[in-house]
Specification:
By secondary structure, the protein is α+β, with helices and mostly antiparallel strands. The chain is built from four helices and 13 strands. It has a domain of 119 residues: Rieske [2Fe-2S] iron-sulphur domain (Rieske Iron-sulfur Protein, 3-layer Sandwich), CATH 2.102.10. Keywords: 2Fe-2S, Iron, Iron-sulfur, Metal-binding, Nitrate assimilation, Oxidoreductase, Signal.
Length: 185
C-alpha cells in the first residue's frame, strides 16, 4: 500500500514538471530551428502601476500570454519573474519575499534570486519538498526586464513564446481528430 501511494505521488509530481529554463531568453539552436514563429521581444503591459504590491510583497500578472510574478523588494526595487515554481508549478507570486534579494517557493521552500532567477541555497528544503526535490534537478525561474510607462508596469517578453509553445500541442490535438490543419480526412 505504501509503495502504491509513493508511486502515485511520484507520478503526480512528474506530470507537473517543466523543462529547465534558467533565464527568460536563453534558447538553443535546436529550439530556434523548431520554432514556427520568429522571436518578437518587446515591452508589453502587465499590471497598472497602482496595483504594484507594497515593498516586501509580490503579485501576479500576465504579459504576452505568460504568467508573471511581480515582486517589490523591501528597498522598493521592482522585479519580474516567471510565476511558476519548479518542480510542480505552484504560483511564485504567493511566495515570501526576503530581505536577501530572494523570493521563496510557498510550498516547497526553494529560494530564487530576484535578479537572476537562479536557486539560492537548498533545493526544496521543506517537508514534502525533501521528498519531491530529490526527484528533480534544481531549476531556476525566468527573469524579465521591467519598466514603468503610461500608468502601467511593462515587462519585456517574447510575445511569440506562447504561440511557439502551443504550436506543436495544437497540431497534435488537431491531428488526432483529423488533419493537422484542422480539417477532417
Amino acid at each position: 500500500m505504501k509503495l502504491a501511494v509513493f508511486a502515485t505521488l511520484v507520478a503526480g509530481a512528474a506530470a507537473f514538471t517543466t523543462s529547465p529554463v534558467p533565464t527568460a531568453f536563453k534558447t538553443s539552436s535546436t529550439s530556434l530551428s523548431m520554432a514556427k514563429y520568429k522571436a518578437n521581444v518587446k515591452y508589453v503591459d502587465c499590471i497598472p502601476t497602482t496595483q504594484l504590491p507594497k515593498p516586501g510583497r509580490a503579485t501576479s500578472g500576465v504579459a504576452g500570454g505568460l504568467a508573471i510574478c511581480i515582486v517589490v523588494d523591501p528597498s522598493g526595487s521592482v522585479y519580474a519573474l516567471g510565476d511558476k515554481c519548479p518542480p510542480v508549478n505552484q504560483p511564485l507570486s504567493f511566495g515570501k519575499v526576503g530581505a536577501d534579494g530572494t523570493i521563496a517557493d510557498p510550498v516547497l521552500g526553494t529560494k530564487f534570486s530576484l535578479k537572476t532567477g537562479e536557486v539560492v541555497g537548498a533545493w526544496c528544503p521543506s517537508g514534502i519538498g525533501k521528498l519531491l526535490g530529490g526527484l528533480f534537478d534544481p531549476t531556476g525561474v525566468p527573469t524579465f526586464p521591467v519598466k514603468q510607462g503610461k500608468g502601467m508596469l511593462q515587462v519585456q517578453v517574447d510575445v511569440n513564446y506562447k504561440l511557439n509553445f502551443e504550436a506543436e500541442y495544437w497540431s497534435g490535438v488537431l491531428d488526432a481528430q483529423g488533419k493537422a490543419d484542422g480539417k477532417y480526412y
